[in-house]
Amino acid sequence: MTKKILVIGGGPAGLEAARSAAELGGEVILLEKRERLGGTPDREGYAKLTHHWRDASEAMAELAAAVTSNKNVEVKYQAEVKEISGSAGAFNVKIEAGGKAESFDAGAVIVATGFQHFDPGRATQYYNYYSFPDVITLTDLEKMLKEHKVVRPSNGEAPKKIAFIQCVGSRDRQIGNEYCSKVCCGIASKQAIEIREQLPDSKVMIFYIDMRMYGYWEPEIYWKAQEQHKVNYVKGVISEVLKKGDQLLIRGEDTTMSRPMEVLMDMVVLSVGMEPSAGTRAVAQLAGVEQNKYGFINAGGASGLDPSATSKAGVFVAGAASGPSDLDDSIAQAGLAAARAVASLRN
Amino acid sequence: MTEMTTVEEILERKSHSVIRDAEVAPTHDIREALYELEAKGEIIVQRVPENHVEVTTKYGRTKKIPIDHTWHHKSCGQCGHIPGYTSSIFWLHRQFGLDYIDPTDQTSCTGWNYYASATSNAAAQAAVMSRNFAAAYETGYFPMIHCGTSYGHYKEIREQLVHRKELRDEVRRILDKLGKPLVIPEEIVHYSEWVHVMRKKFAERQTVSFAPITATVHPACHYYKIVAEDAIYDPEIYGGQRTATVTATLEALGINVADYSTWFDCCGFGFRHILVQRDFTRSFSTLRKIEVMKNEVNPDLTVTHDTGCVTTLDKSQFSAKAHDRNVGIPVLSDAQVAALAMGAHPFRVVQFHWHSTDWRPFLDKLGIDWKKYWDEFQGDLDAIRAGTKSGITWEDADKPVIYG
Asked: Cα distance from B13 to chain A (closest Cα, Å)?
């Protein structure tokens, strides 16, 4: 097999797709926009991975090493796709890597350009992320947890009371993101446990519409958070975050008790969801594959049963480029995309 | 270069203005759909006049705001309860010699009752809007909407008309009977957007200093929450996090704009509440808005840009005052503030006497001898009573006064 497989994106899905395709005998060119591999978990400084609790840096380094040590994979850093022409089995790709223009042929393309976290400033500012230093996001907190330094940005002190607000930028028709981002409930619960481990005197509350704890997250995270770490889950909708003295007042409705509530907090964590990355939007256009109304790449193919298939033959998708996805599913989808890409060239 | 700590990174990110990219806007650009319908011969799209200014809206798109050649879609509540609001808008136009029409064949949008679940149906609502737009189109002037309710309501109807052929057909059937075409303007424009783009010109002609004044801003829900992508945003104002209208105008006029925690709350009007649960409106308006402003920043003035907001914030304060609550902030629209800045007569034009919260300390602070102007106004009334004058005209009101 002499035709190459182009993998776009060096995050978990792209790394797994490149590794699997190479192990199946494919010759792979992997494009990464940054100077290093590891994607969003690396760039955003993730601490532990949900649900195996592995150190994120360590896990990403393993995935990267499996690719860089494989002689069938050529990694191009600081690389961006400029044009994709041709059709299945005979694509021509123009890129810019390290400031230089290049062009090569590829038989198949795997798009693994991932997601970006929802910017809480994109919609109405009910939660005042940009106004109050102590309103942070899951990703902000993840970095603090990694450094074992969870503090209030306003004063550098350890927070005593921390609230998570779920579904920020997800399941929200007002802002056009009707979908569930799948991972935020698990991540918030994981982070709540980590906070309680690092700050045993703290109180942690999670305000949710409903907790979506897929598969083993239920026993591994959800019940563990409540039973072992005394994390308090409150079913309710938070309408606003206000400042009161040097604390944050969160107002909303406790839907279980059917009554309004006000709670004072030291720090509020917004569980921001997923949106397609700028790379996903751009590459989808260049590759000519259909996107859904949110900008993610439509996957499923004609049968609806192939999560790696796009609307265009020879172009496959892996990971959060096709919609909100956790790491396990991204990796699985990447393996499938690799198998399909290799098979398409053999046929 | 020293690496930033996580906290420094968070604070640095929050210190940046938001620059939005229209390419990734979460909503479709309705104007493209309008042009498509026009190409199919289904509707007429009335173009914004040549003399316009382009502004940036919430998701980074561009919106054209006409400067003149405008057809003024007035507000029932402004004309009925706070007429100085409407006369200030016209006065400002007249100061710059801008060409406009104050039509006499415009109807209510009926939006207030619609939002209060009180009347009507989709076809009737859309037909009312379309008749008004057709009336504007027939004059060749571009509609400029004074009322926030009408502005928000029309934008919702525009969505319905664009997306539902059956509704378009039904409305066309009604308009055929009236002998009018189905017209949708290229942009739906709120007067406060015109005030926004004119703000620097107002400042150039400002004759009274607002330096001693601290004001709070209440952004109108119907302006920036309904069909949110149409509202003006500017990275220079609140870092692009909130709509720039009103605040940018006040800042251009040298007013110190102070922030308060419940800026995003409704004024209390709430449409349904003001009609069927007025006590709730009064409580919300005074306890959630006015008292919060008072406690947090104690402003000289609060400024907004919609009929319901001015009336509710202003005229609710009497009830809270009766309960010794911490209220007492005069309420004006941005147009009234701009007119006052340029020397509009406090009573012939701005018409403070229709506002119920005590505005005298505010005028005192500006050094405006309001008693003198009140006497002039009283003289007008005496003349009308005596039959020597039929009413106050632009001849009485056009000339800016040099406050003393």
From this structure: 9
Minimum CA–CA partner of B26 in chain A:
A176
| CA quadruple B39, B45, B47, B48: dihedral sign | negative
Which tens digits make up the pLDDT trace of B253-305? 999 999 998 898 999 998 778 888 888 999 999 999 999 999 999 999 999 99
Q: What is the ipTM of this complex?
A: 0.84
Chain B residues touching residue A124 (CB < 8 angstroms): 224-225, 228, 264
- pLDDT for A201 equals 97
Closest CA in chain A for residue B18 = A121
CB contact under 8 A, A147 and B6: yes
Rounded to the nearest angstrom, the minimum Cα separation between A189 and chain B is 21
Which of the residue ranges A107-111, B128-132, B263-267 would you say has the lowest mean pLDDT?
A: B263-267
Which chain A positions have a beta carbon within 8 Å of B240's beta carbon? Answer: 121
The CA distance from B4 to the nearest CA of chain A, in Å, is 12
The per-residue pLDDT for B146 is 98
Fold of B207-373: Rossmann fold (3.40.50)
CA dist A125 to A131, A137, B265, B267, Å? 9, 14, 11, 17
- Looking at 1.20.1050.140, 3.40.190.10, 1.10.760.10, 3.40.50.2300, the CATH number of the domain B26-185 comes to 1.20.1050.140
Helix (H, G, I), strand (E, B) or coil at A211: coil
Contacts of B204 (CB under 8 A, 6+ apart): none
What share of chain B has pLDDT > 70, as a percent?
99
Work out the minimum CA distance from B56 to partner chain A, whole angstroms: 15
Which range marks the domain in which residue A32 is found? 4-114+277-346
Contact A153 B11 (CB under 8 A): yes
The verdict on a CB contact (< 8 Å) between A176 and B27 is: yes
Residues whose CB is less than 8 angstroms from the CB of residue B339 and which lie 6 or more positions away in sequence, other chains included: B88, B91, B92, B349, B350
